[in-house]
Amino acid sequence: MAAPTVSAAQAIGEYLQSPDDLVKVAAFRKKLEKEKASIDARLKTGVKEQLEATRQGLSKLLGTRDNVQSIRDEMTSIERECEDMTIKVATFDQISRVSMVHRNFESTEEMVNNLLEMATRLDHLEHMLASDSRDIVGPAPNLLIIHYHLNQLERFRNHTMHEAKKASASSQQTLTRWFERLNQFITRFDEYIVELAKNILPLVRAGHADVVVRLVKIAEVEGKEDEKALVMRFVKKAAKLDAALKFKSLQANARVLKHYRSKIQKAIIESIQAKMEEAYKQDEDNPIQFLESSTWIYQDILRIEKDVVPCFPADYDIFTHFIREYHKSLNTVITRMAARKIEATTMLSLYEWLKEYRSNMKELNIAPELMEPPLLDGKEQNLIEDYLQLIIQKLDEWSNNLMKTELSEFTKREEPPEIDSDGMYGTQGAVILFQMVNQQVDLAIESGQGAILARVITEVNRVMRGIQEQWTKTVDAELKKQIEKPEEVAGGLVEYCIALANDQVKSADYAEALLARMEQLVSEKYRVTINESLNNAIDGYLDVAKKCMQTLIDIIFNDLKPATKALFQQSWYDGVIHQIVETMRDYMADYQSYLNSALLELLVEDLLDAFLLIYLNALANSPKLRMPAAAERIREDINEVYTFFNTLSTAQDVENRLRVLEMILSMLEASKDMVFLSFWSFAKEFGPNIGFVEGLIRSRSDIDRSGAGEVMDSIRRKVKDENLTDPPEPTIMKKVTVQNVFTRFLRQ
To answer: Is the pTM higher than 0.90?
Structure first.
């Protein structure tokens, strides 16, 4: 943001603020003259430097223009010199033909010599390949040599066959016969490369990691040649004739693509599959033995990470490739094993082995994404109970569908909630959910295994807690919309919150009944798990019910915001409390009609506590209280609130909760000398609350500042002497927010 401009008069005014400052005018003038001279000197220097830089720049631009013109002239001269040589040299055509004949003679001589030598070279190469192939996990000393010479022969074949395209059919057939032996050798070498790739791990274990390195090097070389061949084909298809003629070497290279890299990767996959299949077939009739002897998988992984990975370039990501294929092959075998009719002991062994497998892979720092899909698609529970996964799946599916309907009805609120047989608001959600739960629990009981039943109950708890979390978030979201944008929200939130609260109590009762039934069916080992799960679900239902009760209270006091803000303000003396009480009365009339009696009792208690907290916060931060009118007004407020809540709860309970206001009123009504006695009664029950009490005393208009100070000094001494502290159980006064002295002063 730009700084505000200051006029000369304003600037001088800052220095000449009194008549005595006129003496400083001469000094101030000299100071300004010095500053002006300094600024002028810097500006002059800067302008001079800028002019010099500009002059140099123009000079360089002129020199550049001369250089460009010189280059242009030279290029024109070169172009003239490069005109058609047939015009400049009369015998150029003859020279060109002689040169071509010479090249053809040399090419023909080289081709004939290569054809004559090819048989001998192939004899030598076949001998080396046979020697290396005898031991597939041996040192393969001739691998690179064979590849080098074979690559030369293959290039010669490609060039020759390309040149022979213009020859007669019989000549082409003759050449094909000549190269048949070479083609067969190329096939055998490719097969040897694949076999090496299938034995990468045995090669490393045999101490011949260098063979793997050479194998990868060959794949890299052939990969680059494949890329060149692909470029050639693209040029032939896409480029114009004159452009294609510039790639004669590529035209001659009629290469057959090798795809060594993909072949090596495929060979690795096949070798892993074959190894896994062989291990399984050895113990196909004894699956437990297969599982117990499967430690070789982890040994292979460790060896691969330590010795195989360094042999490959990083872009191969060879460790990931190996791990994925080991996992996929293992998954194939395990799936086949699980699909067979195996004994219960085998099921349990396999189940435990799967957990051990995941644990071992985690210890080996194998990323979870490399083990996709999970063994048995993550449904290993089917091994110990063939229907448990179905139970879980159905629970999730049914509960999700149920919640979609329930949440849609709750948020849209197009129709009023249903009224049950007791005349209370409610929905069918709780009944439907527990019908589903009991069906699945009955299935688990039929299995006769406490572990399965415990698992089902655990899953039931998970589903219930998920539903409870959804309800909590939905209620919060709907309340927020109700408060922030009431005009955009569908009506009926109060009614649906009542219905939801009733449903939660009903669900808690159903869960308690389920718990009582389960405790008789399982041993102590599983009873603890079942108790914890169902008690956790019951607590969750009660928490959601409490959330609904708090929401109903929040809705009331959201409507009462204008009235509660007026507490202890000027309009309060005219009886604002009547509006507050009548509003609560209207809401409670609706609540009483359709709310569960146990929840209604809780709601009344929480509503009274919420009112007291708002009232006490307003009093704690009130401006000056006009005495005795303020005390009389508080007395009337207490009476009206007592009368209202006495219709909802027992007189004793209401009186006990309003006792804090009675004691505070006693401190307001007491004379300056008697305040201490009222305070002492208050402090023994609710704690000293010095900040609150001091604000209350100082807000009394009938006690001046010094008098209030004397009272507070007396109170502080007594509190210190008696070592008076807050009661063990927190009271409502712990929730009261007292503003600091400065803020209270501003409010006054």
So the answer is: no
